[in-house]
Specification:
Layout lengths: L1 H16 L3 H22 L29 H32 L9 H18 L7 H26 L7 H6 L6 H18 L8 E2 L2 E2 H26 L13 H14 L7 H26 L8 H7 L7 H19 L4
Antiparallel strand pairs: 1-2
Helix pairs in contact: 2-10, 3-4, 3-7, 3-12, 4-5, 4-7, 5-7, 7-8, 8-9, 8-12, 9-10, 9-12, 10-12
């Protein structure tokens, strides 16, 4: 009997060590997605500030230096990029919450709320991406505010879910209870969209601001904070997986560097080109795309692979989680564009 058990374990290990057709398909998907994402990011370089804007008329000699004329079109580009970022994060939330709450059988009817709100946020973001009007839209503002509120309330629900389990806030419950950081993703989507509306709602010829602070610095700081929070959530789940694949270290090391670079941009000179920060954000966005492929490989390695997808996409690593990094990287690139196009120093 012992010999049969040893032989069975040997055969299982041999099967797990050999890539299956599902894993090859996941690798092909990852390669195609990452190549497409890299091409899109390479083609989205921020254009230089426009120089064809009229110069304000002179009112006579002055000892004060001339104030820079802000590029309104640069602010509009940044606002639409922030709308796209908000929509990307909302799409990640929609699919992820649908899968997780389906696994929980929608035991609480409030579990439908993030699905509805994230779907509305996607629609609002698409509308903002297409909108060329240089003013905030009240319906989009309302939806983004609702997304922020949903994230805050959802976090309270998840904290309660973990706390009421036997043993309270112990590692076992934190690992397998309601994910503590997940609801904040939809709040991040709402905050990013709200910033897009504030950037758009500024008079031409002025430096875009949010509540009196320069918009570029505000977006950079909040995006950096969002990257830190998302990294913490990824780190918790990858720690649960014992970092068995060295690639699992990338989502917990590269995004914090991007956050630090954005923090430096938020307090440093506004009109610096910052090529390292731009390329590091592009690399972070690349991780958001490549992560889907790695998670697809993780699903394929479960028993039955993709032929047993109904069970394995629930048991394997979450496919829609990594694109949140892509959305935050887009927001960071928008912040750099705002700083360079509309220097405030």
């Amino acid at each position: 009997m012992k010999q049969q058990s040893i032989e069975l374990r040997r055969r299982v290990s041999a099967v797990n060590a050999q890539p299956t057709g599902g894993i090859f398909a996941a690798l092909a998907l990852m390669g195609a997605a990452t190549a497409t994402g890299a091409a899109l990011l390479a083609s989205r370089a921020s254009p230089p500030p426009s120089r064809d804007l009229p110069t304000p008329p002179s009112r006579g000699p002055s000892l004060l230096p001339a104030s820079p004329v802000a590029d309104k079109r640069g602010a509009d580009r940044a606002a639409r990029r922030l709308n796209r970022a908000a929509g990307t994060i909302a799409a990640s939330v929609l699919i992820d919450s649908a899968m997780e709450h389906y696994r929980g059988r929608f035991e609480n009817k409030a579990m439908y709320t993030p699905l509805i709100v994230s779907a509305l946020t996607i629609l609002a973001s698409f509308h903002g991406h297409r909108d060329r009007a240089r003013r905030a839209h009240p319906a989009r503002d309302s939806i983004y505010g609702l997304a922020g509120l949903t994230g805050a309330v959802g976090s309270a629900f998840h904290v309660y879910n973990v706390g009421k389990r036997v043993g309270g806030f112990r590692w076992q419950n934190i690992f397998y209870g309601a994910p503590l950081g997940a609801p904040m993703a939809i709040a991040l989507s709402g905050i990013t969209g709200f910033l897009a509306e504030r950037v758009r709602d500024n008079p031409a010829g002025t430096v875009p601001s949010v509540f009196g602070a320069p918009a570029g610095r505000m977006v950079a700081a909040l995006t950096g904070a969002g990257l830190i929070g998302t990294t913490a959530e990824a780190g918790l789940l990858h720690f649960r997986g014992a970092f068995h694949n060295p690639a699992m270290l990338l989502p917990v090391t590269a995004p914090p560097v991007a956050a630090a670079l954005l923090g430096a941009a938020a307090v440093g000179e506004a009109d610096r080109p910052r090529p390292l920060t731009r390329w590091w954000l592009r690399f972070t966005a690349f991780l958001g795309v490549a992560g889907v492929g790695f998670h697809a490989i993780g699903v394929a390695r479960n028993m039955g692979g993709w032929s047993n997808w109904r069970q394995n996409i629930q048991a394997g690593p979450p496919l829609p989680a990594p694109p949140a990094f892509f959305g935050l990287a887009l927001a960071g690139l928008a912040a750099l564009g705002l700083l360079q196009d509309n220097p405030d120093d």
